Amino acid sequence: MSEPELSELDYLREIERLAHDVTVEASAEDRLSYAEDPPDATPFQRSVNALARAVRSYHFEGDGCVEDRPLLKLAAAAVLKPGAMPAGAEEDYEQACARFGVEPRPEGWALWHTWGEGGLQVTMVVSAVGTTEGLFRNWSLGRELDPVTPLPSQIALVHHGWTGPMTFAPRGHRRFGLTGAPLS
Q: Are 47 and 19 in contact (CB under 8 A)?
């Protein structure tokens, strides 16, 4: 029986899964270090440690591993979906779409809070919902990760300023002093 044909992204995920298995087994044998390699590490241990440090992220469409487009630095993002609005949103999906000036879509919209020319804060309304969910998964683990710049066809609108609900990226947390403690 032949192996199934994998897409490039599925192939990367499978390699990442296998690499993760290697690091789990190395950790169980007390041979893994995410810090600098110990002076007595063998070349094999150095390789496993390098592998472990490299596979500490979840791959998703738009993460820049497959696409050949520049990354877009985000401060925050949000996903607006029918029946699944972000915590703290005071409007339903249809009302949010009307406020942003986009037609409601069954798959929803993503809001990307970034910077335009001259450091101007902008909110991009993009169709890249799956990419945004992949970002959230990485951000929740403290991983600084940015998506590739969206294609023009993925951008519905760009608004001046940051508006709407937002989940801050690790960069946003640092830049704005959002450490969970009140600012003095």
A: no
